[in-house]
């Protein structure tokens, strides 16, 4: 009898364990199924710090892009799309920490970002380590798709060389003497190096390169160095709010025979550029410049959602990044396997607020249009506006291939 009781106890324990294992298995299957039905995107952006405006525009544009590309459903191939935003604070160590959190804790299928080239360069190796596609927007340093390129990186943002080709086309020709001024950081130095390459190819002479502390508010010694070289043009690469435009006017640079040329970036920058009215340069994006249906939708929808405000430079960029991901997922029918996505995205064309973009197979840089412009005043507008001279199409602005 004792043996029989022990036997029944044993059978009961085994039965309980079997049930528990079965329940756990079902539970795990349910969790896996739920994950399989959701595509997660982690967006890294500077939501505080000196590039806060860039980060917030990117997030707004990304949301708009998801809605546009999915007709408002935020679903693709029967799967729900969710995105998780993280603030890099424009600090490389924070960017790495937040990206690691997105990859390990949130199990994202894609990374997007970041506002800073430094932050982005710090995160690139993680995309390769975790085998996840990272869509770079809006960081512009050439080295992202150049010496630090890895096959998991695709960039919808333009790079410094694309800027440089457009900038050089505006002012460089045989024998023209050009000085350059930029922030002493990755973005500034990459931008100037690319510009010099493009300008010298057109026969221009670079008389001096001047780099300023990115946190500086007094550019007197930098501007004096430029003036001392007696250039015909001063080409400037700059991002952020502490731009030197007012000081250039106060020091009467143009009155001394030096013409200024630079990129027209976001609206906040334009509000500081009164001193540059009449300047011929180039624009990366301004909401009145592109003529296409995607941009029309963006402008109208942005006004509806944000109290009549128009979209800005990095709004269009964030939207382009979202569209590229959705279009790739449509082609893979929701498959997020990185190898499949790489195969799909190489050479892929997709429509954006800036017109058609194409991921170049060689380095995954999106070829895209920029705009030759002249700055003019307009009644009722509190900043100079870029007026289109002509669109520079993706073939005119195609940059050199710089990866290994």
TrEMBL record:
Keyword Signal: yes
InterPro entries: BCAA_transport, Leu-bd, Peripla_BP_I
Residues in the signal sequence: 1-30
Stretches assigned to the Leucine-binding protein domain: 38-376
PROSITE patterns xrefs: PROKAR_LIPOPROTEIN
Key words, A-Z: Signal
Highest taxon above the source species: Bacteria
A Pfam family recorded for this sequence: Peripla_BP_6
UniProt record similarity statement: Belongs to the leucine-binding protein family.
Protein name per its UniProtKB record: ABC transporter permease
Organism for this UniProt entry: Sutcliffiella cohnii
């Amino acid at each position: 009898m004792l043996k029989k009781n022990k036997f029944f106890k044993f059978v009961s324990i085994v039965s309980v364990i079997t049930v528990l294992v079965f329940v756990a298995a079902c539970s795990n299957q349910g969790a896996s199924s739920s994950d399989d039905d959701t595509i997660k995107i982690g967006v890294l952006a500077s939501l505080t710090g000196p590039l806060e405006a860039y980060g917030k525009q990117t997030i707004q544009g990304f949301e708009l892009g998801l809605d546009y590309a999915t007709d408002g459903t935020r679903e693709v191939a029967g799967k729900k799309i969710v995105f998780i935003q993280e603030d890099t604070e424009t600090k490389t160590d924070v960017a790495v920490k937040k990206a690691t959190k997105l990859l390990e804790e949130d199990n994202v299928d894609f990374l997007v970002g970041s506002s800073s080239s430094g932050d982005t360069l710090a995160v690139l190796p993680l995309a390769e380590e975790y085998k996840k596609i990272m869509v770079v927007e809006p960081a512009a340093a050439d080295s992202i798709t150049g010496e630090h390129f890895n096959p998991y990186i695709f960039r919808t943002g333009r790079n410094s060389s694309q800027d440089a080709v457009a900038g050089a086309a505006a002012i460089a020709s045989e024998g023209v003497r050009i000085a350059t001024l930029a922030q002493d950081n990755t973005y500034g130095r990459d931008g100037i190096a690319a510009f010099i390459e493009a300008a010298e190819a057109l026969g221009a002479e670079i008389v001096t390169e001047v780099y300023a502390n990115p946190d500086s508010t007094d550019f007197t010694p930098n501007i004096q160095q430029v003036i001392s070289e007696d250039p015909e043009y001063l080409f400037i690469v700059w991002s952020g709010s502490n731009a030197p435009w007012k000081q250039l006017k106060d020091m009467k640079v143009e009155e001394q025979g030096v013409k200024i040329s630079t990129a027209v970036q976001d609206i906040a920058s334009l509000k500081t550029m009164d001193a540059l009215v009449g300047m011929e340069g180039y624009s990366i994006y301004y909401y009145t410049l592109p003529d296409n249906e995607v941009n029309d939708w963006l402008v109208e929808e942005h006004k509806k959602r944000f109290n009549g405000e128009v979209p800005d430079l990095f709004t269009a960029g964030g939207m382009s990044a979202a569209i590229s991901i959705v279009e790739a997922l449509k082609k893979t029918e929701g498959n997020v396997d990185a190898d499949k996505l790489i195969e799909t995205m190489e050479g892929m064309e997709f429509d954006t607020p800036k017109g058609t973009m194409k991921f170049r197979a060689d380095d995954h840089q999106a070829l895209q249009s920029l705009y030759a412009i002249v700055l003019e005043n307009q009644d009722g507008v509190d900043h100079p506006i870029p007026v289109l001279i002509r669109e520079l199409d993706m073939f005119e602005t195609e940059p050199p291939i710089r990866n290994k």
